[in-house]
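Section 3.1: Structural characterization of target chains.
Under the original work plan, the team committed to producing a structural model for every single-chain target entering the pipeline before any wet-lab resources were allocated. The record below documents one such target. The sequence was received from the expression subgroup and is listed exactly as submitted; it comprises 60 residues.
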Amino acid sequence: MESPRRIVEDLPGATLWCQRRLVERASSDLVLRDLSEHGTAKKVRNAAREKLRGRWKGWA
């Protein structure tokens, strides 16, 4: 299994749909941290923060 890598360089080119799927499926704190700091939409950043805290309940 590969170790997670930083995705911050890839985020500007990733669609909102792709970023939302990453939040749903990511289990790596590194990936979620990148999404929470550099996601292109506020909803993505907030969802990643909530998932890091263990409080994310899915898309409302």
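Residues 42-52 form the longest helix (11 residues).
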